[in-house]
UniProtKB/TrEMBL annotation:
<dbReference type="GO" id="GO:0051536">
    <property type="term" value="F:iron-sulfur cluster binding"/>
</dbReference>
<comment type="similarity">
    <text>Belongs to the NifU family.</text>
</comment>
<dbReference type="GO" id="GO:0005506">
    <property type="term" value="F:iron ion binding"/>
</dbReference>
<dbReference type="GO" id="GO:0016226">
    <property type="term" value="P:iron-sulfur cluster assembly"/>
</dbReference>
<feature type="domain" description="NIF system FeS cluster assembly NifU N-terminal">
    <location>
        <begin position="11"/>
        <end position="131"/>
    </location>
</feature>
<dbReference type="InterPro" id="IPR002871">
    <property type="entry name" value="NIF_FeS_clus_asmbl_NifU_N"/>
</dbReference>
<dbReference type="Pfam" id="PF01592">
    <property type="entry name" value="NifU_N"/>
</dbReference>
<protein>
    <submittedName>
        <fullName>Nitrogen fixation protein NifU</fullName>
    </submittedName>
</protein>
């Protein structure tokens, strides 16, 4: 087995681990949370992302939903990665992830992407990119909407 095949196998195992044992799946009980619902009508993936932002940082993030292994494992990885980040950092990470999904070269030295790197192979399958980016788009929308609300105060 070539090293490329071994890496693909490892990445598939990481994705399946997050799918079968999702991190941060569930609902936040605190009423002061951002809730964003998104779906991918092409394949039926649905995600509700919930985030609690305190003092400009993402204090907590959880999700509920249903969909394919790519969609749900990406949500699991994303919620793990953004906890504790400043809002701007989370948005920067999302930008890096989006570029990675488009097959672009990215400078990911600012962040430890960890398990998220397992999703790199999705860029080879354009129909699956929307699955991988669904939770990330929900996060972007929620944080952007949350910033707008703060500007009105």
């Amino acid at each position: 087995m070539s090293s490329s095949d071994q890496l693909d196998t490892l990445y598939r195992q990481v994705i399946m681990d997050h799918y079968k044992n999702p991190r941060n799946k569930g609902e936040l009980q605190d009423g002061d949370t951002l809730k964003i619902n998104m779906n991918n009508p092409t394949c039926g993936d649905r995600i509700q992302l919930q985030m609690k932002v305190e003092d400009g940082k993402i204090a907590e993030a959880k999700f509920i939903g249903e969909g394919c292994s790519i969609s749900l494992s990406s949500a699991s990885m994303m919620t793990q990665a953004i906890k504790g980040l400043d809002v701007d950092e989370a948005l920067q990470m999302s930008d890096i992830f989006s570029k990675m999904m488009l097959g672009e070269e990215v400078d990911d030295s600012k962040f430890d992407l960890g398990d998220i790197e397992a999703l790199q192979g999705v860029s080879k399958f354009p129909a699956r990119i929307k699955c991988a980016t669904l939770a990330w788009k929900a996060m972007e929308q929620g944080l952007s909407d949350g910033e707008d609300e703060d500007d009105d105060d």
